[in-house]
Amino acid sequence: MTMAKKLIVTAAPVGAGTTRAQTPHVPLTPDEIAADVVACAKAGAAIAHLHVRDENGKNTMATEKFVEVVGKVRKAIADAGVDVVLNLTTSGSAFSEELRVAHLPALMPEMCSYDPGSMNWANSYVFLNTPAFLEKLGTKCKELNIKPEIEIFDAGMIGNVEYYRTKGFLQEPLHCQLVLDVPGGMPGNLESIAYLLPKLPRGSTWSITGIGKSHVPMMLAGLAAGCDGLRVGLEDNIFLAKGVLASNAQLVARAVEFGTMAGREIATAEEARQILGLKKHR
């Protein structure tokens, strides 16, 4: 009997939009984010997917804020004696394309997000990722040896992934993160998963998250479908149960429990590096 592949748990503790009005547990300041990353690593997360906020708690892509936050995160990780892969966002339609990639050479994370297309996010604004930006980001990832986390919100994005793979802007093996149930994207249900999985490039690894009420169903469905990873955190869902607000560490601990119940060992950060082929820069 072969051993089941190890499960990579990603924590997305901050996000761009989760507010204190929604939950007091969302970390906003650099110190809070650093402390939460350590707590998530201790709970079993191998990867931390990070956004940063400004002094007013608003989403920002300012390079100096990324440098401040990631510096504190790295120190907190070292001081706590834990290990975690850092995956920095490049999302941010409100910001220039230059600013969206400026923190990558400054900080040299092992991973960064790569959103392979545009969509009408929650029918309220355009989640903009132009062809020029995707070429620029893919080129930057190759130059710096940073692994793109390819976030799939909608089926058409898989066609874009194939285009950028064929053109050499994305290098195999690819890692895809299914982000389901964002209004304007694909719903968080079994039909979406069954449609998307056969279309992922051959040899890809994949992780899954569901937004809001689909969070737990998509974790369970992903495990049943043999996912390589689960993503959890207050970026995607703020509840542990109906009406019960969660902390990031609690969400990670639940994902670990689900994985263990499904017969999966939980990957360490070093094992995640091996599974995903990551290059540790610093």
Kindly describe this structure.
The protein is of the alpha/beta class and 282 residues long. The chain has a single domain, classed as TIM Barrel, CATH 3.20.20. It has nine helices and 14 strands. It has helices at 30-43, 63-80, 97-107, 131-144, 156-166, 190-196, 215-224, 248-261, 269-276; strands at residues 8-11, 47-50, 52-53, 59-60, 85-88, 111-114, 119-121, 125-127, 147-152, 175-180, 205-210, 229-232, 239-241, 244-245. The protein has an eight-stranded parallel beta barrel with strand order 1-2-5-6-9-10-11-12, surrounded by six helices. A two-stranded antiparallel sheet has the order 3-4. Helix 3 (97-107) links the parallel strand 5 (85-88) and strand 6. Helix 2 (63-80) runs parallel beside helix 3 (97-107). The longest helix has 18 residues, at 63-80. It is globular, with a radius of gyration of 17 Å. It starts with 7 loop residues before the first strand and ends in a 6-residue tail after the last helix. The mean pLDDT is 96.
